[in-house]
Amino acid sequence: MSRRVCVVVTSRPSYSRIRSALQSIQAHGDLDLYLVVAASALLDRFGSVVRYVEEDGFEIASQVYSVLEGGNPLTMTKTAGIGLVEMATVLDQLRPDVTVVIADRFEIISTAVASSYMNIPLAHVQGGEVTGSIDEKVRHSVTKLANLHLVSTQKAAERVVRMGEDAATVHVTGCPSIDIAREMLESPELDVGLFEEYGGVGPRFDLSDGYLVVLQHPVTTEFDQSRVHVLETLEAVHKVGLPTLWFWPNVDAGTDATSDGIRSFRELRQPDNLHFFKNLRPDDFLRVALGSRAIVGNSSVAIRECSYLGVPAVNIGSRQDGRERGANVVDVGYDRDEIVEATLRQMARGRYPRDELYGDGRAGARIADVLASAHLTVEKKLAY
Amino acid sequence: MSRRVCVVVTSRPSYSRIRSALQSIQAHGDLDLYLVVAASALLDRFGSVVRYVEEDGFEIASQVYSVLEGGNPLTMTKTAGIGLVEMATVLDQLRPDVTVVIADRFEIISTAVASSYMNIPLAHVQGGEVTGSIDEKVRHSVTKLANLHLVSTQKAAERVVRMGEDAATVHVTGCPSIDIAREMLESPELDVGLFEEYGGVGPRFDLSDGYLVVLQHPVTTEFDQSRVHVLETLEAVHKVGLPTLWFWPNVDAGTDATSDGIRSFRELRQPDNLHFFKNLRPDDFLRVALGSRAIVGNSSVAIRECSYLGVPAVNIGSRQDGRERGANVVDVGYDRDEIVEATLRQMARGRYPRDELYGDGRAGARIADVLASAHLTVEKKLAY
Amino acid sequence: MSRRVCVVVTSRPSYSRIRSALQSIQAHGDLDLYLVVAASALLDRFGSVVRYVEEDGFEIASQVYSVLEGGNPLTMTKTAGIGLVEMATVLDQLRPDVTVVIADRFEIISTAVASSYMNIPLAHVQGGEVTGSIDEKVRHSVTKLANLHLVSTQKAAERVVRMGEDAATVHVTGCPSIDIAREMLESPELDVGLFEEYGGVGPRFDLSDGYLVVLQHPVTTEFDQSRVHVLETLEAVHKVGLPTLWFWPNVDAGTDATSDGIRSFRELRQPDNLHFFKNLRPDDFLRVALGSRAIVGNSSVAIRECSYLGVPAVNIGSRQDGRERGANVVDVGYDRDEIVEATLRQMARGRYPRDELYGDGRAGARIADVLASAHLTVEKKLAY
Amino acid sequence: MSRRVCVVVTSRPSYSRIRSALQSIQAHGDLDLYLVVAASALLDRFGSVVRYVEEDGFEIASQVYSVLEGGNPLTMTKTAGIGLVEMATVLDQLRPDVTVVIADRFEIISTAVASSYMNIPLAHVQGGEVTGSIDEKVRHSVTKLANLHLVSTQKAAERVVRMGEDAATVHVTGCPSIDIAREMLESPELDVGLFEEYGGVGPRFDLSDGYLVVLQHPVTTEFDQSRVHVLETLEAVHKVGLPTLWFWPNVDAGTDATSDGIRSFRELRQPDNLHFFKNLRPDDFLRVALGSRAIVGNSSVAIRECSYLGVPAVNIGSRQDGRERGANVVDVGYDRDEIVEATLRQMARGRYPRDELYGDGRAGARIADVLASAHLTVEKKLAY
Q1: ipTM of the complex in this document
Q2: B8: closest CA among B114, B81, B147?
Q3: In chain B, at which end, N or C, are there fewer CB atoms within 10 A of the end residue's CB?
Q4: How many other CB atoms are found less than 10 A from the CB of residue D101?
Q5: Which of C10, C48, C69, C278 to mutate to test the interface with B (most CBs of B within 10 A)?
Q6: CATH 3.40.50.2000 for domain D186-349
Q7: Second-level CATH architecture of A3-175+359-373
């Protein structure tokens, strides 16, 4: 009998990251896929994935609305609580053989706790990494709830084992986000007009002479400063002057501060080199990144996918602290001058060689194989 | 300015355990205590602690009802979610400098996640231990959310550090439950009539010729078997025939199975040597345990406090697997014959010498001192 | 295409009352039944209906746990809120053509609001009656949310219309609880041993020389007095001395006060003429009532079914104030002497003639017919 | 001792409407005001009232986040459920002598049910009116929960009594929204630059040659059509060509459809006569309305305040069906041609004479007086 695999996607980037694994699970003869779309992944404001899921040919087993609006730590916490109440219902109805959660966003704790408390084995993709902020707590906390660990790098695997997990439950699959990068390279040109297809807000400019990509998330433990931080980046890319494609951040405490910063900057400075997008198809986003002179901000994409693609990256602030990185990344503080200087230097440097630190682009298939063959149990005990 | 310390108690045994620390926090010149009573700690059915809290002279800062009735994994999970939503409100109102959670019951994840997501430093008492069942996941998961670790034993401290916590944040205080045992020994006789004071259900017998104490919790990952397990213990103590004081278990998935088991046994066998209690004051419970010929079941009291007190213990099943134990404990399976045999052997053996494995009885004061002096931060990162 | 009818049952008495309508809906060629069991109807403590539902051959479309434990107005209110959140999910999944709620217990507001807000036509059974306590507010409030009114009496129909409802949406079906009474009369003898089948707590006595039936609910707007009230009744039936079958009340604020009152009375007085039951099959309960010398308490059964059956009833306190009643009912206050006196008088009076005030026993079929044929819409507007 | 009055505001328009009553309550010697700001009234996206509350000199007793993001009937329903759970906590903490809810938005059911179930007398402002859509159900349903009715018109009072409420509990105070209109007329000129003060999106034009005001809410029982409806209005005011100030709608199922309609119209047509605002201070909004050639849309402001102010109004669609109206209102369907024609006609007609149908502008003081002097009870019973 096929194993029932419930994969819970809570945000646009998570969907992007796990898509190749979803395809492999769906195609696997011994697995039945139950895809749950939850939290900000359902909301237009943060880039609903529903359309992409359908285009990609997946069926949605359940939609879970859990985002309590407010954009502050109180509502973020209650969102996790509502998500926990709701995921209990979903898991009770789907009764999967294993639940899969991805990475480290705050909403995944809801699924991880629900699966654990309902005695359903939990698989965690992308554990064992080290970063800054609340993500760090969430990620390792989920590791201690998980029964199966599908990690991106050898070093991540070592950390998970050192945390006391049974080595037999830890599998280095590579990061599935690299899979999309690998596939994308087979047709690296956008086959649609970027502005025509994706709209967005701001001037539409000629991208043929080079452009920047920016993706900056609020950092939740520095809630009050999100507005200040984003303004430094806005000033910096304004000063660099190159056409810039700015991608809207996800839901998080601080989102509203970030959004407000962006809005007030637009009002005040009326920048003519910034265009804002809410959401792109994952492969198109990578095409855009690949074509850019540099990617700026604090997204993990700049470190993971862009190391494989060789795109120069300027990583700002503490959000990615501790994450393993390749040669393509330059780190700077929340300082407009530092950002300008690093961006110009990276633009001058040009493309880097491919780095397979985060995988060879075949993680999805490996994840499916492990889910199909691993011993599944809810029992675990500290290894020491 | 005094530090605001929010201690969240979610069950009768947790209150019992933390009481000496509450006293030390309340008495400490640099600390203000905010005691939150939540979940089953508010419910008569599981032994409300409200009366004891008042008798002990603590003020309750907030009462949090979170138990969704049903006694199964689904409602247990939703209880955790409701608790998370509610604790967000409480922490938003109290705005403590540090939140304290105790041990490893499933409800504590609500407070641990709420405190983490609201950027309030989290202190965890009794981390680093190893047991069976869902408690194991909860305990270590909370360790990964916590910023301060107040552990019972040297070995627990080592485990917490091995899991990647900064050694500077780990403090061996001993277990505060031992504090009550130490204090109790100053007046080890009950100064009330047990039956007169605590009522309960069943015959009232003369305890002067020896009696047993039983405390058996359902084991949540073995949900369906709770009823079977408790029946084995019931049959065993019925067969031993000694007057037996049986203490009602806590809320948990499986509670109703346990309760039903007990009820149907009473109907069927009409045992004349069993008396059932819902709740005793913590010190009185230890007096009763101290006076017993043996303590039977799967409670941690048998392992912690009773090692200090030297009470012979028969530990049944997997619930305490992995917990460090002294010489006073004999382990058996869920088997009436094994239980009978071990109980008779322990009764014959008599009192054991004091073992300070779980502390010297001064943990409360140490916990207060650490809370007053430790560097408090929400930032943390895996140590490797 | 058949209409999808979602009937939500939130308590044992509601199930009992609606059973004949469920049978008629299930048997109706143009209707598909979706039965949702929610709130206290799922809980053993208040008499789970799950077993009876299965025995009666209905499938449960969804189980909704919503009771937040605590037994006070705060948890009662939160229970309604949790129920609303959960019923939204259920109705979103079932997408019925019409939702049916029964009577006036506080939990039904959850379903009524959910159905209204999700644009699903709402049918209300047993609106338009007048009683005391919070039920009064709930009942009429639900009337103002409902699109279809299936009432028990002509007078109830008149009241619903006077409240501004379109007369075309109001149907006098009779009360479906009378249907069970009518059916029961075809075989009015218990075909099981009462004590053997239903257990319960207390002495088992010979019922052939006459007995009383007691069913007393807490009255929520008189929360603090529930304990006092139940003690008056306990003292009264103790004094009357006849064997008495006491049926446990439903969940409600005050339940625990009622339960505690009962428990302490048992401890203190050790009554030898009281036997306590949690739940009987509806028809068996009516058989027991039919065989009794009188029914005592504040249940609507004493007024509805017992008027049809002619069982003498002693109605205590304010809970049934304003409800239409037949000759079989004597009203008394919360006073042991009054209760004793009225009970003795009713016992002496003996059986009353049948009264069809609440219907002729064919309400279920009429309800099903209306659900199948009525114009269903969510639109409504005050008629004046 | 002063009565504790808890007023719950759940939206920008509600705040605007109740402000004069808040002032009178705060100034009243026998009343203590506890202002709760909840639901969309806290959210920037729908016009947070927090800043205005502070500017007006009120203290916020509690902030209640309850909006589950999603903009559809499912999330709207869950929002009501979350609000109910949260309001229970708030009322338990504030323990007011009376709770006040305003009008008929879907979120007020949460407060109305919470207050009823917690045995706190409920006062309802603006009951007894008749409109279209879900508001109709909410309003009358709240009437049946309320103990005190503070209505706007004589006709509303009659309706409340006909619905079965005790006439002694019904008070015609006039609508407090008229109070702001009356006060505003003392200084009817904006003393700030509209665009400078309130920003907004779109061209800034000279208003001295006349302009339109538009305020159009989604109609929840016509969820799917919200986008179509708003497009008709957009086309119409585009065609009229006069500078138009468009005010963003409130949170509701359909909001996102409305917002999307607006956004896509702006992208496609790039209208040069539309400026969009999120929120104005209530008095400034009325100044803007007063200065307009006509107010267009489906807001109750066009019917209430504008009848007093004599501003010509074009009321679109079913949302205000049944609401009493003065001579200033012309009703049209969701049809661009009808809207254009009616708007031009109203522009040509010019200002109407004052109509005191909705009050004389002294409702706030009357409301405070009734709250201070009325007999407060939770008991009620249908009057017939």
Answers
A1: 0.87
A2: B114
A3: N
A4: 31
A5: C69
A6: yes
A7: 3-Layer(aba) Sandwich (3.40)
